[in-house]
Please model this.
Amino acid sequence: MRYTLILITFLMSFSPFVAAQNEPQNRPALTEAEQQQGLDKLQEPMYKPLLERYILDELKAVRQDQQKLREDVTKQVAHTQLDTADRALTYTTDTINNVFFIITITASILVLVGWNSLRDVKNKVEDIVNTRVSAITKEYEERLKVLEEKLRERSEEILLNQQKISITNEVHSLWMRANLESDVANKIEIFDEILKRKPEDVEAIAYKADALLEINETGEAIELCNQALEIDSDYGYAYWQRACAYALLHKHADAMADIRMALEYSPNLRNELLHESAFASLHDNDSFNSLLNESA
Model:
């Protein structure tokens, strides 16, 4: 703000002089009266030496301040650059020292462990990795084999269950046919079909023996009853059918023994003692009558 005021004052002081210089040279000379009248009109002097000196001093001071400011800025920039270069040099030196320190430690460790080169390190690492990978691979192969075995067993079990379900459905259908069949020969054929699908079905064996007794095939009926009891010695109806066969053959002692076994394993057969036609020859037997009395 101070410099602006000085500049304005300087321009105002020199403006009359500049105007006088710009006037044309061929202007006619003034008379003394006109000159005196012009001097009377002047309110300020045209020449102010003190003001000019002040302005010149101020301009000089401004130039000196600018020069000093430039020197200060140059010094500050130089110091900053030197500081940055010093930091970069220090960082580089520290980094190089750390790298050499790490290399020295690594080399010392390699010497202590017994590895003489990076190739030995590489080979050792490869051996360790291969060993570990082989162990993991073997472990997962064993797990995969176990899983495959379980899946195979499960698949076989599912197939077996499906076959059992299919056979069960077929056997159930054959039993329904046997219950509706009145011809003994056809019943025997149906029981044979059941036994083809379930050879160890003791119930089918016993009922086939019953059908054989109806056509007086007592010997074959006894063989079937023996076969059923070999499969299941606790099946009471097989004892019952064999007792019927023995009674028809008049082997009363054997018949009574099988009747007792049948009643032991199947007490509900006690109600059939009087109604079984095959036991007609036992009605005069004391042991048989004792069983009847016990039932009563």
Q: What stands out?
A: Confidence is low (pLDDT under 50) at residues 13-26. The radius of gyration is 67 Å. Residues 182-295 form a domain with the Serine Threonine Protein Phosphatase 5, Tetratricopeptide repeat fold (CATH 1.25.40.10). DSSP finds ten helices and no strands in the chain.
